[in-house]
Amino acid sequence: MATTIAVSGKGGSGKTTVASMIIRALVERGAGENILAVDADPNYCLAMTLGVEVTGTIAEIREGARVKPAGSAGPDRLRTFEYGLQQAITEARGFDLLTMGRPEGPDCYCAANNMLRQFMDRLSSQYKYVIIDNEAGMEHLSRRTTNNVDLLLILANPTSIDVVTAKRIAELADELSITVREKGVVWNKTDRPPERESELDGVETFGCVPADESVLEASMSGKNIFDLNADSPAFAAVCRILDDNLEKTRAY
């Protein structure tokens, strides 16, 4: 059964960078070929951060499989849909990547989403780790197109608006139709939590990721996360947070 780690946060919080660092850390620890990375942000950038090219998105396949409310998803439609989904998986060195793509249009996608849930349940079981880069609204999780989340990292910068957003995401996690076993805030670009941390009403702080010029320089020069020096302070901090909190998931 896969350990599912979801990363969420508002735009600019650094969630995609942290998600890619988690993937790199797991690859380097020998979990290669057992990692599924899922980019669930409509503004998908995880592939670029990981240094791979997207071969297709779930949105494109779901668009072709959508049905009207009175329609049904028969065996042939299901097989065709699953074949398309398999083709959308980008195989990289040490991990696979699945890109969700843009949100749904105005038509009925109920049957397509049901097929997607069945596929994701089976797909996730084939991996040791599933890492999901979410948007702040966590639409992918709210539609239950994945298994229960073992660890939810809420990325936030030490600003007032990020504190408010982090609180909203934590509240949303409690309302999801799936189980989020452990959730906490990761404060980005800082050595310590902001004074307004107390406004999160008991939501745990998983740790802090310091500002790191080498991360910005790598991004500005078009490098991916695997090009980042191993002694990067930000990467080291993410590795510590991962180690500390993976221990909690082993109790389940």
Q: What is the 3D shape? A: globular
Structural class: alpha/beta
Give, in spatial order, the strands making up the sheet with the most strands: 3-4-2-5-1-6-7-8
Number of domains: 1
- Compressed to H and E, one letter per element, the order equals EHEHHHEEHEHEHEEHH
Supply the CATH architecture.
Answer: 3-Layer(aba) Sandwich
CATH topology: Rossmann fold
Describe the protein.
The protein is an alpha/beta fold. The chain has a single domain, classed as 3-Layer(aba) Sandwich (Rossmann fold). Helix content is 41%, strand content 19%. It contains 9 helices and 8 strands. The protein has helices at residues 15-31, 46-50, 58-65, 75-87, 110-124, 139-142, 160-175, 213-220, 233-249; strands at residues 3-8, 35-39, 90-92, 95-99, 129-133, 149-156, 180-188, 204-209. The protein has an 8-stranded mixed sheet with strand order 3-4-2-5-1-6-7-8, sandwiched between helices. α7 (160-175) links the parallel β6 (149-156) and β7. α3 (58-65) runs antiparallel to α4 (75-87) and α4 packs across α5. The longest helix has 17 residues, at 15-31. The termini are close together.
